[in-house]
Each structure stands twice: as structure tokens, then as C-alpha cells.
Amino acid sequence: MRQIRLAIVGGGAGSFMGPVHRHAAALDGQVQVVAGAFSRDPARNAGAARPGERLYPDWQALIAGEAALAPDIRAELIAVLTPNATHAAISCAALAAGFAVLCEKPLARDRAEARAVAQAAAASGQPFAVAYTYLGYAMLHEIRARIAAGAIGIIRRIEARYVQGWLAEPVEQDVPGAAWRTDPAEAGISGCFGDIGVHAQSLVEFVTGQPIARVLADLVTCVPGRRLDDDGAVLLRLADGTPGTLVASQVCAGEQNRLEIAVYGSTGALRWAQERPGEAILSDATGAATRLSASPAMLNSASAAALLRLPGGHPEGYLEALANIYRALAAQIRGNADALTMPLAAADTGLRSLAFTAAVVASSASGGWTPVEI
Amino acid sequence: MRQIRLAIVGGGAGSFMGPVHRHAAALDGQVQVVAGAFSRDPARNAGAARPGERLYPDWQALIAGEAALAPDIRAELIAVLTPNATHAAISCAALAAGFAVLCEKPLARDRAEARAVAQAAAASGQPFAVAYTYLGYAMLHEIRARIAAGAIGIIRRIEARYVQGWLAEPVEQDVPGAAWRTDPAEAGISGCFGDIGVHAQSLVEFVTGQPIARVLADLVTCVPGRRLDDDGAVLLRLADGTPGTLVASQVCAGEQNRLEIAVYGSTGALRWAQERPGEAILSDATGAATRLSASPAMLNSASAAALLRLPGGHPEGYLEALANIYRALAAQIRGNADALTMPLAAADTGLRSLAFTAAVVASSASGGWTPVEI
Amino acid sequence: MRQIRLAIVGGGAGSFMGPVHRHAAALDGQVQVVAGAFSRDPARNAGAARPGERLYPDWQALIAGEAALAPDIRAELIAVLTPNATHAAISCAALAAGFAVLCEKPLARDRAEARAVAQAAAASGQPFAVAYTYLGYAMLHEIRARIAAGAIGIIRRIEARYVQGWLAEPVEQDVPGAAWRTDPAEAGISGCFGDIGVHAQSLVEFVTGQPIARVLADLVTCVPGRRLDDDGAVLLRLADGTPGTLVASQVCAGEQNRLEIAVYGSTGALRWAQERPGEAILSDATGAATRLSASPAMLNSASAAALLRLPGGHPEGYLEALANIYRALAAQIRGNADALTMPLAAADTGLRSLAFTAAVVASSASGGWTPVEI
Amino acid sequence: MRQIRLAIVGGGAGSFMGPVHRHAAALDGQVQVVAGAFSRDPARNAGAARPGERLYPDWQALIAGEAALAPDIRAELIAVLTPNATHAAISCAALAAGFAVLCEKPLARDRAEARAVAQAAAASGQPFAVAYTYLGYAMLHEIRARIAAGAIGIIRRIEARYVQGWLAEPVEQDVPGAAWRTDPAEAGISGCFGDIGVHAQSLVEFVTGQPIARVLADLVTCVPGRRLDDDGAVLLRLADGTPGTLVASQVCAGEQNRLEIAVYGSTGALRWAQERPGEAILSDATGAATRLSASPAMLNSASAAALLRLPGGHPEGYLEALANIYRALAAQIRGNADALTMPLAAADTGLRSLAFTAAVVASSASGGWTPVEI
After folding, report:
1. What is the CATH number of domain B137-310+350-366?
2. Chain A closest-CA separation from residue D256 CA (Å)
3. CB-CB neighbours of B369 under 10 Å
């Protein structure tokens, strides 16, 4: 299998996401970074480049420059790692220029932008994916498959949360990424929910296979002076009426990436926690709780097992989850549709997150139930 | 220490609560059952009595009969274990007749009844307690004390749940206790929330030391044909504005007594789960999570440690929790105010649960925020 | 059911074991303390007595005094809670005088003494049991039954441990019970193994249903100046050749009562830990690990389920385990052989522990494999 | 940083180790595969190669061929992934030809071979490491540093185990890698202990900083017809007399890679389990047990934290552990001695494992204590 040529926008020296995408892209030897516009700051831009990579001063130059190269040299895939505000513009431009795109979440600042990306993707015919990294974990695919197969009967209730503590204090000026995530101009209408609440929302919709239909929300701005929510909770109903709760917070001290879900059913329950991503707890109608591990022998779903690289007992982690997304995109770009890879989150999935965030913000303002409308 | 003489109303042969109270009352050798009106069914009444116990056909006869006995023979304490509908009437009558009372929760069917009990207790001057058994666990007293002492800083968010599965199917006719708990005439305005949601509510208020001020609720009747909620979720705010969620369900298959709380703060978090009642998890601002055990060496609070009967490493359970309530009541009846026993849940605490339930029901109907008013 | 009359020898004011036996005896309302020789120290003796109990200055006086009383008044059962050195003498005398006996472990200081008790028990025809309290946990009976039924196939390997920390420092003079447990004159030929190693040994033999046939031991006296082992480890083989390890220590700081066992088999494994006594982990041939709880719905064994007092989700603990022993003894004394109670550890079980300890001490001295001979 | 050029010997199509090393080498973008002799079977050899890699029919050809290339083209590092029997020969030849070497464990079949490799490494001056992958986990470096800094006081006792189940049945002909691991001609004098017991041994020596001085062993061949041990247990003493136990098995059904260690000390204890490699449990003298996570905020050791690629809450796994070894080797080959990378296991560490295995085999045969002699 030949390597897919990747160009990266964003992820300048010192960023979190830059190295993460580099590691994940490299892991399977299927993707090679050939170009980058890592930062508008020249030093951070140069600092993130590696020998042999083509360096551009900004994303416009990158798209123009790569598009002008010979087809067997230029990048095929562009990864968009910038702050939220430019996701849609870069994605649309890249798609229009004929590149495949992997865009970090959230897909855009609002639904209108997201719809534009969806249209651009459809128009271009190029592979397009939103990087919901957590959905790359093999165990989540197993959970989704088991629920679909009736392992816990009819879903009765959902509890989802994503609780962090890194914004527990007013660290906007000190911690990288804190400033723009709390700035409405950069982040959009929501802070915490737009940033991480949508991970919980996408997790709920992924494992249940159902959209969230309406929400009753209570957003909180805990740290004085902050202009967006940094905490909140939501009562929700899925399309079929199933009730649930979704909590997101960035101000709970000491919490790291507590992204968790419990799905209770009429004959059992399933639980998963991102900080032990290779485990799931399946309980039956007697209450006996079985811990499954991400081992081929314990996964019923062949497509979930195909997302593992190692035999049972050898833990895989976050980078492997993102690498699964790169591997699937690479297969799509190569055109080998038969490859047993994960389904990718397309623009409509990204749009759903923006619709959810909009509904949450509206519900919290009105104090009443609000439909999630795309 | 002399034994306190106890009369039991309810808890007939085959019931859950009768043996539980007998075990708990017996555990410390401080309380002796002397009389009972265990059931209006003569066979179940006789079947629950033990040799030497005075048996009455109903609670009215018991109160009258015991009151007529000599002071050194008659019961001093009456335990009320009947279905909800008669809690208030029996409690009021017993208090009026000069008995101390331990009443199972919920204290009454509604706030008016609960206020009547509170007045009767005040008028009689007798010890009165509501049996929030879970609040008898030593570790909860430690958690309350640590939170009050600032162990996790300012409380930022609360998650509480009480999830069961025993009503996952329409078992009303088959499972003891299911019929009256789902019958508005017996149970009152709420099924699940009145029965177990109030345990989660009392837990939240106990460990935070704050009342729940308002709620935004979504009650569910999951099993077709049921006339009361059997599931639901609540967004809540404490008196100081702290946000939280509270989930209660009796239709999540396989769940047993998943009564749990997480209190997130500005410098750490504390977690507790009833099914491992002797453990608590205290995490600090780095995320390091310390598991405390109900061992004297690990408890900071002397009054929490006084609720333990055993050295570290020897697990105690549910019966010990209820026995702590009996021990505290016995000390109060004896008048040894200095005894290091647990604070009892008085009628005002019982009233708070009814106010919470009423607010939840009202909020779910209106779809809007509703104050909790006693 | 009438109450069985109990006399207690040992357990003076300030002891650990005295209150433990009182709580456990009281829990089910089937046993009533009527007499005691709690301590040879008059103050500690009187301090442990309760109103109405007959108090004797020493065990000889108690046996003589009770034996002289009318059959419907005198004690029926004598609990022996003294230090090891007097276990056998008191047990023999009590049995000879026609009392049933519950003797704390170890049954005696050595095999000769233990054989004498076994003979006395046989001669008297009275119920006799050694208080291996941990064997009173319902879940262990379930584990034993599952293993016997082939739940994990053929046993391949055993790991057992009992690790404590309370003797991590030379606290002999400060901590109650430390002095005699480290004194050869009181404790016998072994400290740690005689005291707690035998709990692990009895656990191994109970759950596997097989005796330990031979041992290869390495005993350690960790704290300078101590005269007996306070730590050690053993390689062992069961009668059928199954290999295992057994670790016991009292010098591992911070450990409380880490009594644990793992039984690995040809198709799965079972694990149990005393500090969460109501749980067991059963893993299957794929590695999926199911946590069972001590709930009637999750126990296959009716005789294990009969040891529970509460429905699932209501934790029981150490006192309930000892209470199970009292309940079984009471049934035996009453002669209701049909009662579904636990099998009691008779004198031969106590003898096995002494044989194990003797073999461990001999093996550690010789450095070679040593048979366990009763 | 330029990429180091890697040649791989072994790891033909279908092997476990080939892809593992490829993933790990690729993860950081610091190592590039340029050549391979993946298998003596031409199809499996070709099947493992990727475009642009130089393919050789056997390791002799690879060493000769690469050595003949220009210095800026030829491989700098040779990874030896063959069965045990050829480790030493290939390593010696590669070192003699001027290549750096990463050799899979065990380093050799016996001590004589291992000493030869040590001499070859010393003579060549080339970087040389044995791939004890598990020692690449960041948390183990933290544990080692904490123990060295006195976090648990003086070590009192060690428990180590490596329990697997993949050889629970006679699968020699069916499962890749099973045949040679159970064949004395390929594997050497020990099966289970030579293969995985040494992982536990190296873990013990790594975290304590002390060699195992002597052993008392009981090896087992559980599956009939097998010619080497497939299970066993060892009592051990470290150089300073500290006692411990070490269990290794490949016949415990359902176990995957249960490599675990508990180090008990005079003021606390530390625990680690490979299947949750980013966690450690540190208990203090009261028994409070703190779960540390592999997050920069929770690691005291800067050199441990340098082995992480991600912020707290983003799990890393087995591939990252091996990648840490590659990253350290790459730094050594580049000559940047200041890089904060992990210390590598040199030939003397590999020799220690062979000495341990030899002592275990001898002790099990004699039934007596046996010194570990290098």
C-alpha cells in the first residue's frame, strides 16, 4: 500500500494537536506528511516542519501551492487543525481545490457554515471527515454493534458526561488553547459544550444509532469574567423518546478527560470510559457485570476487531484511535472500498454537533425544551 | 446500657423491611423488640412475631395497648414500616401517645402530612427520626465533614443517581412491594422519585450541607400501564446556585441499588457508591484519586469513625448503617446526649424530600424550573 | 426459634474479639449471651459484662458454674476467645462438661493439642466449630460450589495471600494483641503464619475442596528483635499436584486485611478479596471477567444464597460472616438438621491449619519440600 | 531530527512482532525501515516488505549487503526479531559489522551466548539494547523513581506475576509462535520462564533497583507431552535479602498479559499492572490507596514524564512503550546524549534474565535454594 500524502494546516510548534496528528498519521506507515502551514507565526511555523516538508506561510498559500504541483507529488489529504473559526473556510477551499479533508471538530462555528462544508464535500466528491477522535476507539464500535444486536434490549436511559478540570481557574492567558476556546469570536456561541459537550453528544448518537431530538439545558459560566459556558448539563430525549442526561464541564478540578457513557436497557446495560478505552462493562439482567477487553477474542464485531493492531492484553490508546481515522481515510483515498475500516464521521455528523450546541444554548436561555434542528 | 424497648408496626412475614429492622435493632444489643402489629393479615402478623413479643392486630391497638402498660414494660420506641400512606397517621398517633418514633421514608404522602408530623414531634418532645438508612453509613459522614472542611474547595457540580432494575417489567402483581409503590393511592404523587429519588436527594443535601433550591425535571413512565413515574432525571441548583443532576430509575435492568454521588469541586472531587459503602474516592487537583476506606486510620472525622464497629479491613454494610440510626435513637431516648452518635434525620428532613418530589412532579409537568418549597 | 444461651470466655473490655462476637451472636436474634469469664483482670472482666449476665472470674469457674445450673438456664454454647495458648484446654473442658463450643482459630498451639480437642469433641457428641470467620462469607460458598461444578475447568494454579501492616513496626507493647501474637509461649511456633497464614490456607482448602499436601517455605522475621515470623511465602502443592503460592505478612505497611485468592483453571478463573467480600470475579476462556455480587439472582448455589440476609445491592460484611457461623451452630444445637446453614469448620479443619503451620516452619528451616501431616 | 535507518531481521508476514516493531518505529517519525530479511521463507519475506525497502533472503545477506552500502544509505540499526535460537549470532554479527542493534528478549539461549553478545557490544562501541518492551512504560519509570526516593520506605516484600492462557491447551501446531516456544532446540532450557518469567524478573529488578540473588523454584509442565515448563512459581530474595514471589504461567485459561507487580514497603506500597499500564496504585501507611495516572501533573520524575507523548487523560499503550525504546536508541545513534530518553536495557540486563532462568531451572530440579549467577 502506497503512502497517502498529507498536508497539515495548524498544529504549530507548541500546540497539542500538531504532534497528535503526526503520531497518528505515522503509526501505520500509510500516511506521510509532505507539506504544512502550521502557524501564521513564522517561527512556530518553521518549528513544526520536518526536513523535506514543503512549508507555506498560511493555508491559502498551501492550498494554492499544493494544487499547482504534479498529481503524484502534491498532497492528497489536508488536515485542518486550526481554531474553530477557520475550520469551515479552510475545509471548503481545500475541497474545492480537489483535496480530501480531515477537519478537527467542531466542523464549524455554526450550522450555516457546516452546511456549506457539507455542500462543498458533496460537490467535490472528495473524502471528507471530521476528527471525532474518540469514535476511533475499537471498543465503541463493539458497543454500538452489541446495542444494535439487542445485547441490552431496548434502551431505557442514557448517561453521558465529559468532565475536565483544566479551566477550573481563569487560566486564559497562561494555558495554550484556553484563550480562543473561551473567546466567542474564535469559539462561537458556546465554550464548554461547543468544545467537549459535542464529544459526549457524538458518543451518545454513535452508540445508540439515534439522533438527540430535543434538549432541556442548564449552562453555567463558573469562572468569573468568562464570556462563554464552561460547564453545564442537559436533559435529552432521543428521536424515539429515550431519555438521557449529558453533563459537560471544564471547571471540575482534577478531572482530565472523563468522557463516559452508560446505556441502560431493558435487559442489561453497557458502560464505557475514555480513560480506560479498551474496556467496556456489560451487565445482564441479574446485575452480573462483565468487563470486556479490546481483544479479538472478546469482540463480536469483525469491524470493531479490525480496528485493533495488537492481540489481547496489549493496550492501545488515543493515538491508535486517531490513527484508525487516518487509516480509514487513506483507504478511501486509495479507493479500496473493501478495506475493513471504520465508518467516518462526515459533514452531516459535524453539523449535528452544531445543531446540538445551538439547541443547548437556546434551551438554557429559555429554560424550556428545545428541538435539535439541523 | 439498658436495652430500649421497641414496638414494630408493619414488616409482616415475607416483607423486606421487617427482618432488616430486626437485624439492625439487634446488632448492638441496645434495642429489644417487645411488641408488634406486623400486618393486618393475621397469619402474616403472627408469622412475624417472636416468643415473648406482644402481638396486636393493628397499629391503633398497638398504640393503645402499649400506652396502657407500666412505664418500665411498655415500648419506648415505635418503628413505622408500613406503606407510605399510613406513615404520617401512625407517627402522629404514636408521638401523641408519648412514644419515640422511627418512621421509614418517605415521611408522608405529601407536605401537609409531613408538616403535621413535624408539629406532632415538636409537641410531644419525643425523639423522632426518619429512617434514611443510607445516611447511616460512616463514610458519608466523613465525606460530609471533609467537604465542609474544604477538602475539595468550592463545590462546582454534583451528580447523583439511584438506579434500580426491579421494576423493569410489569411485575406489579408478582413482586412484593411493587403493587403499592406503583399505586397513586398508596404511594402518593410519584413512584420512582418518591421512593428512591428522595434517597438521592437526601444524599445530595446531606453531603453538601445545602438544600436543593430548584429543579428542572423530566419524569418518565416507561412500563406501559403504570400510573406513576418509574424513571426520571432532574437538573438542579442548590441554594447557593451550585448546579447538579439527579437521576432515578427503577426500570434499568440488572441495576440493583446503584445509589451514587460525585461532588466536583474547585480543588478536587469526592465520590461514593452505596454498593461499596465503605469506600470513597477523593481526587485532588492533579487528578490523583485516593481511595479511602472506612477505617479509623483513614477517617478524619471522629464522629464518622464513631459509627464504625470494626477495625480497618473488616467490611460493614447496610445493616450496620441502619443499626447506627437505632443506636443514635437509643442514646437519645436514654438521654445521654454526649454519646458520639450520628445526627438523626428529623421531620424537617422528611418534609424536604416531599417538597423535592412535589417540585419534580410539577416541573416535569410544566417543563420549566420549579422551586423546592417546604 | 428459641434463643441459644451463650457463655463467652475471653473478649474482655478493650479487646477486638469480644464485641465482634457479641454483634455477630446478636444479629439474628438466635443467640443470647447469658454468662462470661471475659478476662482474668477483674476490671476488664466486669467491664465487658452486661446486665443480667452471670460473671465468672475465670474459665474454670464458668464451666463449673454453668454446668451446675438447671438445663433450661445454663449456657448451651461456649465461645472461646482467649489467646491461642488456652484454646485447647478450654475447649476440651467445655466439651467434657457437655457444652457446645465455638473456638477462635487457631484451634490449638500444636497438632497434639488439636487432636485432643478433636477427640474431646467426638467423645462429647456436642457441636464443635472453629471460628474461621472468613469462611462465613456467602460468596466463598458460591465460589466453592462453582469450582466443584466445573466453572473454571481443572484447577491449574492458586494464588493466595493475607497481607497486613499492623506489625510493620515493633509495636508489641503498644497495640493490643501484638504482644501475645509475637510471643512463642503464647502463640506457638509461628507468628504470622499461625495467626493469619492459616486463614489463607483454610481459604485455599475450602474453595478447592482439596488439602495442601506439601510446602516449600521461606519465613521471615522482618522487625528486629521479634522472635517469630512476621512475614513469609510458601510454594505449595495440593493433594492432586496442583501448584500454588501463599503469602502472609503482617509487616507490609498500610495493608489492612488483604486476604485474597485467585484460582486459575483450564477454562477460566475465579478471584475473591475479603475487603470486598460480596464480590467475585469469574473470567472465562476468552478473558471476559464477570463481577458477581452476593445477590440471590447471581448465586447458583442455594446454600450460598441462604447465607444472605438481604436482597442484591445491600452489602453485608464481616459481622454477617461470623453471624452465619453462629446461626449454623444454633441450628445444630437445636437439632434442626434440615436448616440450610453453612457447613462448620470442625476440629479436623483446625488440625489441618496446625499441620500446615508446622510444615511451613519445618520447610523454612530445612529449605526443602515438606509434607503437611496431620 | 533526521530519521534513523532501520533494518529488520525476522517478523515475516503473519508474525506478531513484525508489525509491532514497524508501528513502534514509525510512531515518532524518527526511524525509517530501509531493509529487511523478514523470513527465510521467500513468500513470507516478500510479504512483509514495503515499497522501497531492500529485501534480503537471510540475515547474513542483510548484514553483508547493508555493510557494503554507502554510509548515508545503509541501515544504522538492526532489529533482531527472530526466535531465540539465533538472537546471539545475529546480534554479534551485526555489532561486528558496525551496526547498532535492538534485540528481542531473551538476549540468547544461555549465559555463554549472552556474554558473547555483551563482549561484541563492548568491542563494537555501537548502541545495543534488548527489547524489554514493558520497561518502556512511563509509569514504571515513575514507580522506580518513587521507590528510590523512599516513597514506600524500605521494601519489605515483592509479588510479581506474568500469567497468560494462550498455551492452556496443546496448541503447538495451530498457534503461531507456540511451536518454537515449546521446543528446547529453539527456546532453550525453559519454556514459560524463559519466555515471560523473565519479563517479571526484569520488572522486579527494574523497579527495585536490585538484582534477584537467589531463588527457590517449582516449575510445572502442565499440558501433557510438552517438553518445557509452561507454568511455575519462585520464592526469591533480592541482593539485600528482601523476599518475594514470582509466578509465571501460560496455561491459565483466559488470562492475557497479566504482568503485574506489587512492592510492599515499610511505609506504603506500590502496584502496577500491564493491562492498565498508565496507572499505578500508591498506598500509604494508613492504607489510603492513591491511583496515579500517567499524566505529567502526577509524575514526579521528569524522565518518566518525558516518556509521555500526550497530556493527562489520553491513554497510551504498548506501542508507545516500544516506541520509547526506539526513540532512545535513535537518540543514542544520533549521539545526542542530552536527550531525555529512557535508559536502555543493555546486554548485561539480558544476561541477568538468562542467569535467572538457569537458576530457576536448577532450583526446581534440586528442590533447594539456588543463587542467580551471571
Report:
1. 3.30.360.10
2. 5
3. 19
Nearest CA-CA partner of C324 in C305, C338, C311: C305
Inform me whether the C-beta atom of residue A269 falls under 8 Å from chain B C-beta atoms: yes
CB-based contact, B52 to chain C, within 8 Å = no
Q: What residues have CB less than 8 Å from C125, skipping those under 6 apart?
A: none
- pLDDT tens for each residue of C21-51: 999 999 999 999 999 999 999 999 999 999 9
CATH number at D137-309+350-365? 3.30.360.10
Tens digits of residue pLDDT in D76-132:
999 999 988 999 999 999 999 999 999 999 999 999 999 999 999 999 999 999 999
- The CATH number given to C138-309+350-366 is 3.30.360.10
Q: Which of C234, C255, C276, C284 to mutate to test the interface with D (most CBs of D within 10 A)?
A: C255
In D28-58, alpha helices (H): 42-48
Q: In this complex, do D298 and B287 lie within 8 Å of one another by their Cβ atoms? A: yes
Strand partners, D371: D214
Nearest chain A residue (CA) to B267: A253
Q: How many CB atoms lie within 10 A of CB C340?
A: 12
Contact C311 B16 (CB under 8 A): yes
What does each C-alpha distance from D263 to A233, C157, C162, C236, D266 come to in angstroms?
A: 42, 22, 15, 22, 10
Contact yes or no for A258/A164 (Cβ under 8 A): yes
Of chain A, the percentage scoring pLDDT greater than 70 comes to: 99
Is-same-fold flag (A4-131; A138-309+350-366)? no
Q: Do A20 and D310 touch (CB under 8 A)?
A: yes
pLDDT in tens, B106-155: 999 999 999 999 999 999 999 999 999 999 999 999 999 999 999 999 99
Across the interface, whether the CB atoms of D265 and C286 are under 8 A apart is answered no
Q: Which residues of C touch B277 (CB under 8 A)?
A: 315
Cut 0.95: pTM above it: yes
Chains that touch B (3 or more CB pairs under 8 A): A, C, D
Contact assignment for D309 to A295 by CB distance below 8 Å: no
Q: CB–CB of D231 and C243 under 8 A?
A: yes
Q: What CATH code is assigned to D4-131?
A: 3.40.50.720
Quick check: C314 and B318 CB within 8 A?
yes
Q: What is the pLDDT of residue C337?
A: 66
Residue C266 burial class via C-beta count within 10 angstroms: exposed 0-12, middle 13-18, buried 19 and up: buried
Q: State the pLDDT confidence band at B338, using cuts at 50, 70 and 90.
A: low
Nearest chain B Cα distance for residue A169, angstroms: 8
Say how far apart CA A39 and CA A13 lie, in whole Å. 8
State whether residue A289 sits within 8 Å of chain C by CB. yes
Sequence ranges of the domains in chain B: 4-131, 137-310+350-366
Pairing of strands D231-238, D243-249: antiparallel
Check D235 against C251: CB less than 8 A apart: no
Mutate to test the interface with C, among B275, B276, B291, B308 (most CBs of C within 10 A): B275
pLDDT digit string, tens, across residues A250-299: 999 999 999 999 999 999 999 999 999 999 999 999 999 999 999 999 99
- pLDDT value at residue D186: 86
